Amino acid sequence: MSFELVWEHLYIVLAAVIATILLGLPLGILAYINRRMHGVILWTVDILQTIPALALLGMIMVIFGAGKLTVIIGLVLYSLLPVVRNTYLGLTNIDPAIKEAARGMGMSTGYRLLHVELPLAFPMIFTGIRIATVTAVGVAVFATFVGGGGLGSIIYRGIHVQNMNLIMSGTFSLMAMAILFDAVMSLVEKKLYRQKKK
Amino acid sequence: MTKFFDQYGTKLWEAIITHLEYVLVSVALGFVIALILGILLSRVPKISKFVIPVISVFQTIPGIVFIGVLFLYLGMVPLTVLIALTVYAVFPILKNTYTGLLNVSQGYKEAAKGCGMSSMQSLLRVELPLAMPNIIGGLRMSTIYIVSWAVLASMIGLGGLGDFIYIGVSTNNNILIIAGAIPSAVMAVGLGLLIDALRKKVIPKGLRGERA
């Protein structure tokens, strides 16, 4: 087994997670600010996650063709839910008294959002990002079906040539990656929550 | 469009039925197994402390591996798919059953004991109903995953909607991809909505007011 596949997998996951944050954060904020949009946005990301991964990738492939771009777009659509929902929930759950105080000091909506509300909601948003990352590691296995490479290709090949070692090496690297991401990010998460309490 | 349905209509219908069969059988089996294991684990918190993290680790294994490995041992029979999907369905439900039962507040359990309920009665009449919304949440997660992983049945030649997606992807036939993708998406969304409705029903009467 080559390290290249691990890097490829990591590259796909990281690119997807960064894009998810860039897209999910504004969507979550929009859902929070605009009452009318919030139903539509939350409902849409919920439906997106319900669609089977391979089906979603297949449909995207129809438009963008085979390759990494298809996989990354698919992963982004798939991991939007935790980021958008946690951004929205984090912002909604802030103590109204704090929001009042910020308004009382004469802060504008935008200023309040950037300097008071987002920092307070950040631990919750980070939890969403963590969930999205770990899920993305697993779903990226499907990359191999639409020509995106990654660890899925080694597992798939292993199944086809009936080679147990190949399957296992792919699976264990995948598990290790998921667990590592989860462990590191929950450490950061714990620190964030502790800071919030101070 | 009509030409497509003339050509593939019956095949598509068969694929949908096969797919649905895989999903329903494995989720039903998984639900029963997970419920029993979850209840047993919640009785022995000391052991569960070690078992639950192990289960979370297993959950990171993608479904394709379960199907692939079992395929090597059992061969190309529907049983392979059913076992693999059942195993996969167990994890989310088991975890939610366990946490749901553990999160039942001590006060309710005490009250049940105070009313003279045996531990079995307390479990069936108090703890399980209170944990039910959580358990159904796990069921929803499992079902949606399984619809997704059942697509892989066709990887080892066992039909289902995956057939259309696979053949479509490998022959670059967009219509076939869409023909497989849309029904499976609709199936997942539909089953999700159905379970959401079920979840609303199982919330104990006394708690309904609070949640709404």
3D structure, described in words:
The complex is a heterodimer of chains A (about 200) and B (about 210). Chain A contains 8 helices and no strands. With about 200 residues, chain A is an all-alpha fold. The mean pLDDT of chain A is about 85. Chain B has about 210 residues and is mostly helical. Chain B contains 9 helices and no strands. Chain B has helices at about 1-45, 45-60, 65-75, 80-100, 105-115, 120-150, 160-170, 175-200, 205-210. In chain B, helix 2 packs across helix 4 and helix 4 (about 80-100) crosses helix 6 (about 120-150). The longest helix of chain B is centred in the N-terminal third of the chain and has 42 residues, at about 1-45. The model of chain B has no long low-confidence stretch (mean pLDDT about 85). The chains are: A mainly alpha (about 200), B mainly alpha (about 210). The interface between A and B is medium-sized, with 33 and 35 residues.
Going by helix content, strand content and strand pairing, the class of chain A is mainly alpha
Envelope shape of chain B: elongated
Question: Helicity range of the residues of chain A?
Answer: over 70%
Compute the separation of the termini of chain B in Å. 45 Å
Helix-strand sequence of chain A: HHHHHHHH
Instruction: Estimate the strand proportion of chain A.
Output: under 5%
**C-alpha-based Rg of chain A, rounded:** 19 Å
Greatest interface and its residue counts? A-B, 33 and 35 residues
Tell me the quaternary state.
Answer: heterodimer
Q: Topology of this protein?
A:
The complex is a heterodimer of chains A (198) and B (212).
Chain A: H1 3-33, H2 35-50, H3 53-64, H4 68-92, H5 96-104, H6 109-139, H7 151-160, H8 164-197
Helix pairs in contact in A: 1-2, 1-4, 1-6, 1-7, 2-4, 3-4, 4-6, 5-6, 6-8, 7-8
Chain B: H1 2-43, H2 45-59, H3 63-74, H4 78-102, H5 106-114, H6 119-149, H7 162-171, H8 174-202, H9 205-211
Helix pairs in contact in B: 1-4, 1-6, 1-8, 2-4, 3-4, 4-6, 5-6, 6-8, 7-8
